[in-house]
Amino acid sequence: MTTASRKKIILFLAEDCCGLKPRLEFLEENGYVCLTSDSFQEGHRKVRDLDVDLIVLEEHLKDITGLEFCKRIKADECTCSVPLIVLTEKDDSGVRIKYYRLGADDCLLASIVKDELLAKIDVMSSRSSTDERDRKGSRQNMAREISRIIEQEMILPHFQPIYCLNPFHLLGLEVLSRPIGSEMFTDPNDLFKAAEKFELYDSLEMMCWKKATESVAHKTRNENLFFNCAPRLIEERKLDAFYGIFRKAQMPFNNVILEITERSSINEESVFSQRLSGYRNDGFSFAVDDVGKGYSSLESIISTKPEIIKIDQHIIRGIQNDPVKVSITKFIVAFCKESGIITVAEGVETEPEFSVVKSLGVDAVQGYYLFKPVSDLNLREIKDVCVAYV
Length: 390
What we know:
- The protein is α/β, with parallel strands linked by helices.
- It has helices spanning 21-29, 40-49, 66-75, 93-102, 114-151, 188-197, 201-217, 231-235, 243-248, 269-281, 295-304, 313-316, 323-339, 351-359, 379-389, and strands spanning 9-13, 33-37, 54-58, 84-88, 106-109, 155-165, 168-179, 225-229, 256-260, 285-291, 308-311, 342-345, 364-365.
- Helix 3 links the parallel strand 3 (54-58) and strand 4.
- The longest helix has 38 residues, at 114-151.
């Protein structure tokens, strides 16, 4: 029997919950708290909100099949880790395989005797407690590591130039923040996603911007710098706290382009637009990143009304061999020209890709073909590329 101080909560899901009464009474006598539900909506809510330790699922609910319930529960990030036992009506290996493939932890016959069911639940709930402790420990370690990265400024800024094509000149430099000295976080995307999850994103981003501006302050104050920016910083006026970074580096706001990323969502479009207008009046310009990657980038264009649109590298990759990618790029370019928006092709790595995007009327290009990201900024080398293409 479970030895945890808090009684374990088991949620039973069945079309006829009244028929579960003998089992529920037996389990409660043995120290468990038993809840019931006969529908997906109610069952899903209880799993999410009531700290359920284990789900016991029959094959039919009033509004959904057991298979569909299992699929939805295991697809939800908030509920996928809750162990799930399925009670099947027949001893059918094909049915069991379907449930296992959807993520069920065990399949038992519905006719199982109550003592055997209790033993299975004891084992499964004990295993879930260990898994939860491991998850909590892992989360604590991740939060500590992110805090260490922020406190010790374990970020090395890199800069990648963006070139306008007609006439050929330097449009600006994108700031790329790469973690150093951390075994847990080597990929910057993983670091920023985790920081957002642990509510450390603002501090991390501020440190990254500070290091980037310090790195270039003595080399240039006249070039445009592109910074990745989560929408929440704008919507919640968190960006106000970043002003001092640019002032200390003597960097005019009108040299700063903020690339709106998908690191957080826009909650209230009207509030976001109002805040955006205020920052734009202060001199900031805005770009929408990864356009063409999904619906969210299109929504960002509507909300942001950007000065610059960056076409996602997945569209640019191999564009010379893909008529669909060509058509998508043509559409984006036509829309931007009509709207007075500058287009940037991201991730250009080969001469054929460069030639195609140039022929399609894209305004600017960024990618390894022209210049790789560098940590030691040398503007003379970067601008020498312009000479080669004039």
